[in-house]
Amino acid sequence: MELTDINYIKRLLKRHGFTFSKALGQNFLTDPTVCPQMAEACGAGAEDGVIEIGPGIGVLTAELAKRTKKTVSVELDTRLIPVLAETLTDCRNTEVINADVLKTDLNALISEHFPGMRVFVCANLPYYITSPVIMYLLESRLPIESITVMVQKEAAERLCAPVGSRSAGAITVAVNYYAEAEHLFYVKRDSFMPSPNVDSEVIKLTVRKKPPIEVADEEFFFKVVKAAFSQRRKTAANGLSSMLGISKNDINEALTAAKLPSAVRAESLTMEQLGTLSNELREITNG
Ligand code: SAM
Known about the structure:
The protein is of the alpha/beta class. It has twelve helices and nine strands.
């Protein structure tokens, strides 16, 4: 395929006077096997819509266009817009929006472009904003089926870790609240131009119909999770008291009520235990 042919890409980009921006996380895929695999794994079919973030020169966009009804790709770099107009001329079911994904109202985008359709997200993410983008997609409560994304291998480990395991962090809990995360496949660093300094992995987050636990106050729950994980080598109680300004006494009372030891560490807590702890803390601090 032309769009993964290094010589073609070099000629194309030279003609457009384009040079790669490290700051925008621009590493374009050149391994011809990766995009078809990603587009298949995302699960969108002939009647479905896809949102892509950061199309680059459109290598994944073209694969999504072949399989789905419509793809809308959000690209921040204005210099790539004329490039995409050229590479996607034959993909009439694609549209490119020149915008920062984090400043785009994706609920409005979905109502406008995909009425009555199932919607999927599929993207080779710019790594400098992996977590903010994933959290933005999940917290916006978009009517989407799943998010299939390429991320840095280390980020994949954190995002897909079981809650209650050593590799879990606040983001693991947050992702798990909204979605079921799974590893799909590894992608070596030499599959890109230019090669990044890290290996990558494609993961899939299947959006849950409802969260796995019920919490009294969602916003407070996420504050508690962030605070509990904030001092990784210390106890959850330490993080909670320093980040939330709650007295050690109140924290110990909440831990006891949640049947947890006072020296418990955040990474050993299950989803249910974190939910109970936040509910107890909320009750105690609300007086
Ligand atoms: N999809 C292409 C590929 O696989 O070859 C390019 C992927 S490259 C890792 C990330 C892309 O995201 C770049 O095209 C970059 O310009 C774009 N980008 C960076 N920050 C963005 C943002 N905030 N919103 C939308 N696109 C962004």
